[in-house]
Specification:
Radius of gyration: 25 Å
Shape: globular
Helix content: 25-40%
Strand content: 15-25%
Distance between the termini: 11 Å
Largest sheet: 9 strands, antiparallel
Bound molecules: 6-O-phosphono-alpha-D-glucopyranose
Length: about 625
């Protein structure tokens, strides 16, 4: 949700900020803007609607904006339609917000998140003579800072502090003050923000890829902390205005990992990175051929004390949870409940103190998942986060963290992070099963061997991608697609269906195959595409029967199963095979053709698959 960048140092700021915004465009892409300062000159503001490209053209790739200090923003609209007026940066002066050029304002700022009480604050400021040019909550917060700054004749840190205690919501802010050239002020609450320092240069961004090319040494600014960023130095303050010391963290991600490296889109590159992501995540959890959860701090005694597991997550991470319930219940024989974080956070939850709450999140910043984690912690429940982004809020607040090693994921639709999360779940399930005596040593070793064979099997599927590519192009104009499966195959269907709809905009639904006849089958008519997922031997015949029921009503059937199950061709019109693996781990293989199907359907329709309309990668608002 919205990307923020900032730079102050010895180089020209605009090209650095545009480069950073390009790497954050997955966070929002309906408009973008920059505010640049050249020494003590007033800030120059330039904004533009649409993708970042139009801002790049408008500023001649940043060359038309001189100055070594600046902030930038790429927007995912929450308050107010995407327009030049509503685009950030916003200013404290009573000017027309769509105007670009030098602005006389005291304060200029960009914002990610939502200010919930902005209407009340707007009324207050209107009574004090402020006029508003935009519909945004951001303009309100910038003007509120300006109000305190002038009224009490205090410094930026104190003015921001007074504002933070008045606003409700989630936010990350980057601000420049007219009287403080060369300085950027930043603050956050439940929205990500990192600050990097290298030599005489300082960088600020919503996410790591924006600054990876410049530095890997970063500070994670804490909730309700303020940063004063100067060239080559940064100071942090708490809500009392007292200076606080923060530790620096070294990012191990390779800058190249955040580049397309010759691939047409990040999504296909990330699909191809899955063997490595799976291998790396597995390697981080294996020690001398045994699973080790030592890095998470979950010791044997703790694991043994767990009476039930609850998994909360959003989007594809929730689909991992759906798969996890089958795997954990079957292997470890512990009751598992899976919930959408947005539902869990607002309902009365009954838990006992031996529950383990697992929050799965690629970004570690998803607002609903974070709120669910906090709710669990407030209830005194032990929490484990399965997270990809090191140092993210969920990772820092959970009692235990299991990091996936997918590297930076840029495409909005997740692929390699999903696959890495599955590996984390498999290891947790196998280890818990072994520790609780549900499986013996022989089975334990068999499962580990099966796990280590997954990367090569995924590579094999990728080598055979042409078939699914052809099929996706053929069906890219389908009106509706139904994905059906039972058990773990239902969980896989959920992810396949999401990939199809979010990338190609074709309506698709996933159903537990046995549930079809309770209503949905009325939607099946001639040539509707039904994709049956059949990786679970025990349920194979049942799902084939449900597919046959669809075919009898005119559906065109695609089957997705493992090599050897050739009898499916008696019913299916088109079949995709994946290598065999232990049934518990089949999601890792079956999901790959479905990711490819979604990707190639979107490409065939000429869509921007990395940045599907209305979506954002990291959803830091409710
Ligand atoms: C967005 C992304 C999805 C992702 C979901 C949860 O909707 O587009 O790909 O699964 O957020 O994100 P998280 O970072 O918590 O895994």
């Amino acid at each position: 949700m919205c990307g923020i960048v900032g730079y102050t140092g010895t180089s020209q700021a605009a090209p650095i900020l545009l480069d950073g915004l390009a790497r954050l465009e997955y966070r929002g892409y309906d408009s973008a803007g920059l505010a640049i300062r050249d020494g003590s000159e007033l800030a120059q503001v330039v904004k533009s609607t649409g993708k970042l490209r139009s801002l790049i053209e408008k500023t001649d790739s940043g060359r038309s904006l001189a100055g070594t200090c600046g902030i930038g923003h790429t927007r995912w609209a929450t308050h107010g339609e995407p327009s030049q007026t509503n685009a950030h940066p916003h200013v404290s002066g009573n000017c027309t917000g769509s105007a670009c050029g030098q602005v006389e304002s005291e304060v200029v700022g960009v914002h990610n998140g939502i200010i919930e009480n902005y209407l009340e604050l707007r009324d207050k400021l209107s009574r004090h003579g402020y006029q508003f040019y935009s519909e945004t909550d951001t303009e309100v917060v910038v003007k509120l800072i300006d109000y305190y700054y002038r009224k009490y004749k205090i410094g930026p840190v104190d003015a921001i502090n007074r504002t933070l205690v008045r606003v409700r919501g989630t936010y990350a802010l980057a601000l420049m003050f007219r009287d403080h050239p060369g300085e950027i002020y930043a603050a956050r609450k439940d929205a990500p923000m990192i600050i990097g320092v290298s030599g005489e240069n300082s960088y600020l961004a919503s996410d790591v890829p924006a600054i990876l090319n410049y530095t890997r040494s970063v500070y994670y600014i804490g909730n309700l902390q303020i940063a004063r960023v100067l060239p080559g130095e940064v100071h942090f303050y708490d809500l009392n205005g007292d200076e606080v010391q923060l530790e620096r963290t070294e990012i191990t991600w390779d800058a190249k990992a955040a580049e397309k490296n010759g691939f047409e889109h990040f999504m296909i590159k990330e699909i191809y990175e899955q063997p490595a992501a799976v291998r790396d995540t597995l390697a981080s959890l294996l020690c001398d051929g045994k699973i080790s959860l030592a890095d998470t701090g979950l010791d044997d005694t703790t694991l043994r004390s767990v009476s039930s597991i609850r998994i909360v997550a959003c989007g594809s991470a929730w689909h991992v949870g759906m798969a996890a319930q089958y795997i954990l219940e079957d292997l470890a024989q512990i009751p598992v409940r899976v919930e959408l974080a947005s539902e869990y956070r607002y309902r009365k939850v009954l838990s006992d103190d031996r529950e383990l709450l697992i929050v799965i999140s690629q970004s570690g910043e998803t607002a609903d998942s974070l709120a669910a984690l906090r709710k669990g912690k407030d209830m005194g429940i032990r929490t484990l986060a399965i997270v990809n982004v090191v140092g993210s809020t969920i990772a820092r607040e959970a009692d235990h963290v299991l990091y996936t090693h997918a590297g930076p994921e840029i495409a909005v639709a997740t692929t390699k992070a999903y696959s890495s999360q599955l590996i984390a779940i498999y290891c947790l399930a196998v280890e818990t099963a072994f520790m609780l005596g549900r499986i013996d040593e022989e089975a334990y070793e068999y499962y580990i061997q099966e796990l280590t064979s997954l990367p090569d099997k995924i590579t094999r599927i990728l080598e055979e991608k042409e078939r699914i590519q052809w099929f996706a192009s053929k069906y890219s104009n389908a009106r509706d697609i139904f994905f059906i499966g039972r058990g773990l195959d239902y969980a896989i269907s959920l992810e396949g269906s999401l990939k199809a709809k979010e990338i190609s905009y074709v309506h698709s639904e996933a159903y537990a195959a046995g549930e079809l006849k309770h209503g949905t089958i009325s939607l099946i008519e001639d040539n509707i595409l039904v994709i049956g997922v059949l990786t679970q031997k025990d349920l194979f015949e049942k799902t084939v029967s449900n597919m046959a029921e669809c075919k009898a009503r005119g559906a065109y059937l695609m089957a997705l199963t493992s090599y050897g199950n050739y009898s499916v061709e008696d019913s299916a019109d088109f079949t995709v095979y994946v290598p065999k693996a232990d049934p518990h781990f089949m999601a890792s293989l079956a999901v790959v053709p479905l990711q490819l199907f979604g990707y190639y359907s979107g490409v065939a329709r000429g869509l921007d698959v990395d940045k599907p309309r209305n979506l954002a990668k990291s959803v830091t608002v409710e």
